[in-house]
Amino acid sequence: MSLLSGLKKAKTEEDVKDAYIAALGLKSYFKGLVDIQTEEIWFEAKDAPTPPIIMFGQLLVYVRAAHKRGEAIPAFLAVIDREKAAIMPTEKALPLLDDKAIVWPKKGSGAGKEFAAQIAPYVQTHIVEYEIEHDEAAFIKAVKDAIKERRIIRTPITPDNLRQVFDRWVDMVGSELGVRNEADYAVLFFADIMHDGQNEAMTNLPARLFRYYFNLYQYNEFLKEPLHKKMAATVIHSGHILDI
């Protein structure tokens, strides 16, 4: 049974967890305070669709607690629900564990939007998100490769796959921007993939495109579900993409 099929049949959060466990072929795992815990990766799971940044916030509360106790923490963190999943290297979040400016909730369930806003500057550019309906195979491969290689493997954008990436971007990102002139998609696409999450390489966009470009990065949209993370094929880091 495919992961998508398993998730469609899931009736509870436990069913969601079991669907991912089966699809990923996890052999040695433990269910507890951390929803699914293996040596290499910890998962936070939800039955209902939930913003990944909020789920990562909850998971990081457990990582911090383990870190303070001197316990081993995994190389990767992942969040999963019945519609999407996301993964990031744990090391990218380690600096925030010692940041005294962060106000940590007493327990994972207390990590909501306010806490998400605090951790966003540390982790937002390192989260790679997948929509299971479109990206099931890519997510499964990314998790298995991350465990095997201890890194998230990205594929560079090349002339051979550029059209495929662009068409996917228009379908999953561009179509949500309200662009009236379809010819403008190309400019916005290149502006998006040339943005590293903090700095933009294209600084001479036509004035008419400013509001569309701003929509890609406005903070409120980020907390809900960042547009430029909606497709696993587009990762805003030096023109690299995940397997498509």
Envelope shape:
globular
Mean pLDDT: 79
Instruction: Return the structural class.
Output: alpha+beta
Spatial strand order of the main sheet: 1-2-3-4-5
In angstroms, what separates the terminal alpha carbons? Answer: 21 Å
The percentage of residues in β strands lies in: 5-15%
The helix content is 40-55%
Biggest sheet architecture: 5 strands, mixed
Number of helices: 10
Uncertain stretches = 218-244
Along the chain, the helix and strand elements come as HHEEHEEHHEHEHHHHE
Structure explained in plain terms:
- The chain is α+β, with helices and mostly antiparallel strands and 244 residues long.
- The protein has two domains: 3-149, no CATH class; 155-241, no CATH class.
- It is 43% helix and 11% strand.
- It contains ten helices and seven strands.
- The chain has helices spanning 3-9, 13-24, 52-68, 94-97, 113-123, 132-149, 162-172, 184-193, 210-217, 219-224; strands at 36-37, 41-45, 76-80, 84-89, 128-131, 155-156, 240-241.
- The strands form two sheets. A five-stranded mixed beta sheet has the order 1-2-3-4-5. It has a two-stranded antiparallel sheet with strand order 6-7.
- Strand 1 (36-37) and strand 2 form a beta hairpin.
- The radius of gyration is 18 Å and the shape is globular.
- The two termini are 21 Å apart.
- The model is unreliable at 218-244 (pLDDT under 50).
Record keyword descriptors for this entry.
244 residues, alpha+beta, 2 domains, five-stranded mixed β-sheet, 7 strands, disordered C terminus
